Amino acid sequence: MEAIDANRLPEDRVPEVSRAPSHPLWWWLGTFGGAFLGCVLLVAVWAKALDPAGFAEQIHAEGLDGFLPAQAVALIALVLEAGLGLALLLGLRRPWVLVPATLLVAFFVSLTGRAWWQAAHGLRDQSASCGCFGNLVQRTPAEAFWQDLALLVPPLLLAFVGRDRRGPRFPPLRTAVAVVGALAVAAFAWKAPELPLDNLATRLRPGVAVQGICAGDAESRVCLDSIVPELRTGRHLVVMAKLDEPRFTKAVDAMNAYAGDRRNPTLWVLSPVTPEEKRAFFWKWGPAFDVREAPPEMLRPLYRRLPRAFAVEDGKVTRTFGGLPPPF
Questions:
Q1: Contact 266, 255 (CB under 8 A)
Q2: Is 185 a domain residue?
Q3: Are 94 and 46 members of one domain?
């Protein structure tokens, strides 16, 4: 007779080993594609929410504000893009997420494709920066089209693969996080212009070399050190402003006094003005500082609001100022 092992349980009483549910490879690929697309959308939202005024200008330039003001269109676009990005990042691949995401990606690609076609036919500046990343990233229309196509379309297609159709259509927690996050982005964009975020929101920050602040492409390329070559050596203070802006004109007397003291860094003013406007400013105000004309394409990525100023030493930006610097 076979001995019974006291430590051995009958087969029908052996506890089952709990195992986490496994997902097929296609589910993982689809989840990765959706999360990647969500990250791209959220990075684009961050770049545009930092400078909502610049985003609104881009919307107006593209003619997308026919029914609503550009500022309202910008805010709605940020909420939609943020909500979809968060939903995809959280693994929500339901039709109510993927269908709007597909329409959004198609819109972005068609917009950059149109800009590329216009640039190729001489209807748009070849160096114009455009695309879903706002004004923060400098790209030509062709670069914007191909980069947006590569970053948006493949992960979007992957997001449709291996979807889990079980579970609620609107998972409460993840849906709530996406909605609240989108509303938080709208609130942030609303207040962003008042926050000290210029170094994050623009291409001008301490450490940047003036020779790298450029606009244009190939033969039309213009850099800051070619407009003001004196910046390559010595100490300088540069103010970017519109010459007829009241905050700037009120400070002209103080700026003249500052420029008259040779112990101070050399003062320069950069402005997107015509020669006629510059001449009128000279005869009206008699500036003791030098005003240099700078193309709007070069200046616009360097500020959120004018005036803005920065200090330069031996060709490198050492400090930036929101508005006019302290002496003024």
A1: no
A2: yes
A3: yes
Give the residue from 195, 212, 245 where a domain finishes.
Answer: 195
279 close to 285: Cβ distance less than 8 angstroms: no
Domain membership of residue 220 (yes or no) is yes
| pLDDT, tens digit (0-9, with 9 covering 90-100), for 69-118 | 999 999 999 999 999 999 999 999 999 999 999 999 999 999 999 988 98
Closest Cα partner for 133 from 68, 39, 225?
39
217 backbone dihedrals φ, ψ, rounded to 5°: -140, 140
- Asked if 125 contacts 297 with a C-beta cutoff of 8 angstroms, the reply is yes
260, 112: one domain: no
Range of the domain at 94: 25-195
161-205 pLDDT per residue, tens? 999 888 888 999 999 999 999 999 999 999 999 999 999 999 999
Cα gap 211→274, rounded to integer Å? 23
**Domain shared by 92 and 229, yes or no:** no
Identify whether the C-beta of residue 156 lies closer than 8 Å to the C-beta of residue 37. Answer: yes
Same domain, 222 and 179: no
| Structure token digits, residue 134 | 């706002």
Q: Which of 53, 101, 91 is nearest to 74 (CA)?
A: 53
Q: Residues with Cβ < 8 Å from 111, sequence gap 6 or more?
A: 62, 130
Residue 191: CB atoms within 10 A of its CB come to 10
Give the global pTM.
0.83
Question: What's the rounded Cα separation, in Å, for the pair 198 and 317?
Answer: 14
Is 144 within a domain?
yes
Q: Is 92 found in the same domain as 224?
A: no
Whether residue 17 is contained in a domain is answered as no
Strands 290-293, 266-271: pairing kind? parallel
